[in-house]
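User: Is it possible to get a 3D structure for a protein together with its bound compound? The compound here is zinc ion. I've pasted both below.
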Amino acid sequence: MQGKIELMMGPMRSNKTAELLRRCEMRRQYASQYVMVLKPSDDTKGGPGIVESRNPNGHSKMHALEFNSTNPWEVLAAIEQKEQEIGKRVECLAIDEGQFVTDLFQFTRSLLDAGHDVLVAGLDRDFRAMPFGEMLNLSWLVNAYGGSITECMAYCSCGARALYSQRLIDGKPAHYDCPIKVPGDAYEPRCAEHFVLPGRPH
Ligand SMILES: [Zn+2]
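Assistant: Yes, that's possible. Here is the predicted structure of the complex:
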C-alpha cells in the first residue's frame, strides 16, 4: 500500500518545524509509529543531528538523521537498516527544510511508493518570492497519493498576514542578486506592503 503525504509550507517564522515535530510526536505517542526525522545538511539551525524549531515555545527539538542535501537517496539504506534493527516498518519519514533537498519530488514519491507516510515541512518561496526548490511540486503528490497541505501562517509586524520572507543582511534588505543560501543571515516575515527587494528586475 502507498503512503500518504502531509505538506507544511509557509514563509519564515510560520512555525513549520514546530508543526512538523508536533505531528511526529503525535504519531509516536498515539499511533505507536516509528517516525524517522530527516535533516538536510543545509539546515543550519539546531545542532548536528537535531531538528530544532526557532519558536522557543512548545515542542522545540528532536533527534534526526542528517543527510547530504544533494543526495537524499543515501537515506534509503539507513531506513532499511533501521527496519532490521527494530524488526518492523518505519511507518513515517519527516523531512524538515524540504526546499534544500535535491530530487525532493522523486525522493518523496519513491518513499510513498514504498508505503511510508511522508511529512515535509519547508519554505515555499525564497527571499525573492520565487518558488524554492521543489516544495511547490509536492502539491501534485498530495493529489496523487492523498494527504494534506497546510499553509502555515506568519504575520508581519504591522499585523497583516505575511506571505514573504524578508531577508536582511546587516539589518538591510538583501539585494535581489544575493546568493540564496548564506548561513547566518536574518529573516522576517513581511506582508506585501512591507516586503522590500532592491534590484528586482521585473
Ligand atoms: Zn506589513
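Residues 5-153 form a domain with the Rossmann fold fold (CATH 3.40.50.300). The chain has a mean pLDDT of 93.
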